[in-house]
Design goal:
The protein is α/β, with parallel strands linked by helices and 371 residues long. The chain folds into two domains: 17-44 and 285-367, Aspartate Aminotransferase, domain 1 (Alpha-Beta Complex), CATH 3.90.1150; 52-283, Aspartate Aminotransferase, domain 2 (3-Layer(aba) Sandwich), CATH 3.40.640. Helices cover 38% and strands 16% of the residues. It has 13 helices and 15 strands. Helix 3 (45-57) runs antiparallel to helix 11 (273-283) and helix 5 (96-107) runs parallel beside helix 6. The protein is globular, with a radius of gyration of 20 Å. The model has no long low-confidence stretch (mean pLDDT 96). The chain binds pyridoxal-5'-phosphate. Pyridoxal-5'-phosphate binds at residues 37, 95-97, 121, 167, 171, 199, 201, 231, 233, 239, 244.
């Protein structure tokens, strides 16, 4: 079946943050909104169909997680990543960021040190600070067009940390970490007694021939010393359905996490959560292949366009996902001038690179338009 990614959807009357919150930030609503990480495609038809069918039932009572929900996750991670997971290792979370907050509360203490690698998805810093933990920075190095980890600094600065938050693949750089990098990281964190949270929300959007390596698949040290955060939300464009999950192999870590979750019944989910995850993962391979091919063509377009028309803006081609990190330092503008240039002259609502850390100064972040 050929899926249609060309259909233009008017999101203006759908309470979309991307559209409706522009006014509050830019004071206007006429910009092309490319600042929130969701796509403008319809989600996969089999997801909509599962929701529609459930809607037709008309009774929205308390809902449990079916076997179909668990087996869809288990098969997806096995087929795609060779991960062998059992049902009790999977825990529902309403979203990756809420899940990171919950796990941080369950598994670390106030005042603990948490290492992150800027420039990085800014809620890693915000959640850490808002939960009374201290952020320790291990800036990435930009080498030959890609971000790399600085292991000398990491080894030095990780001492005394209790948690490391890994963005795998990396947002905003679009980096797919190599096995060697993940092995070195796993080794250091294990030796220093630092637990790893691996945010793998962009994993399913890894562009072939590259392959995503779940951190937990690196070896026993990584498996027993990590919490993996996953979701069909980015790949199937359904983050508004608030349905994500964690995979925890280590029984002790799992029971501490579950105790926290159970105390507040944080894994109740909602009536559409489990069926939409099951529908995406059970039917999604072909849809996702076509979606990835479409996204890659859009990346080619942006790359070609900037090379031809704005050569001072360097597009860092993502190895995964639809976020484009655009290095604008050669324009010689201050961050304020750069933001104003994009909104006032290019008519685009983009993310200010600085929110990802001071390493993002002079850079803007663009969520790929629907071309
Ligand atoms: C690395 C990363 N983690 C988490 C999220 C958000 O996840 P959620 O909406 O499930 O909290 C995003 C969204 O852009 C992201 O890029």
């Amino acid at each position: 079946m050929q899926y249609n990614f060309d259909k233009i959807i008017d999101r203006s009357s759908s309470d979309a943050i991307k559209v409706d919150f522009m006014k509050g930030i830019w004071g206007r609503t006429d910009l092309i909104p490319l600042w929130v990480a969701d796509m403008d495609f319809e989600t996969a038809p089999f997801v909509t169909e599962a929701i529609r069918k459930r809607c037709d039932n008309g009774v929205f009572g308390y809902t449990c997680k079916s076997d179909a929900y668990y087996s869809a996750i288990i098969s997806w991670v096995k087929d795609r990543y060779g991960m062998h997971v059992e049902k009790d290792m999977i825990n529902f979370i309403p979203g990756i960021v809420p899940g990171i907050g919950m796990a941080m509360n369950a598994l670390t203490n106030k005042g603990d040190k948490v290492m992150i690698q800027p420039p990085v998805y800014h809620p890693f810093r915000i959640v850490t600070e808002n939960n009374g933990r201290e952020v320790v920075y291990n800036p990435l190095q930009f080498i030959d067009g890609h971000y790399r980890m600085d292991f000398d600094a990491l080894k030095r600065d990780i001492k005394g940390c209790s948690l490391f938050i890994l963005c795998n693949p990396h947002n905003p750089g679009g980096t797919v970490w190599s096995r060697e990098e993940l092995e070195t990281l796993a080794e250091i964190c294990y030796d220093e007694g630092v637990l790893v949270f691996s945010d793998e929300i962009h994993a399913d959007l890894t562009f072939p021939p590259l392959k995503h390596t779940p951190f937990a698949m690196i070896g026993d040290k990584a498996k027993m010393n990590s919490v993996t955060f996953m979701s069909p939300s980015k790949a199937f464009n359904m983050p508004g359905l608030s349905a994500s999950h964690v995979i925890i192999y280590n029984e002790n870590i799992r029971s501490r996490f579950k105790k926290f979750i159970d105390a507040c019944e944080l894994d109740m989910g909602h009536v559409f959560a489990f069926i939409s995850v099951a529908a995406a993962y059970s039917n999604g391979t072909e849809w996702l292949d076509q979606c990835l091919a479409y996204i890659q063509k859009n990346i080619d377009y942006i790359d070609k366009f900037t090379k031809e028309h704005t050569p001072k803006i360097k597009v860092i081609r993502p190895q995964a996902s639809y976020l484009i990190w655009m290095d604008c330092k050669e324009l010689g503008l201050s961050q304020v001038e750069l933001n104003n240039f994009f909104s006032d002259e290019a008519n685009l609502a983009l993310n200010n690179g600085k929110i990802f850390g001071k390493e993002g100064i002079g850079i803007c972040d663009l969520m790929l338009p629907h071309l």
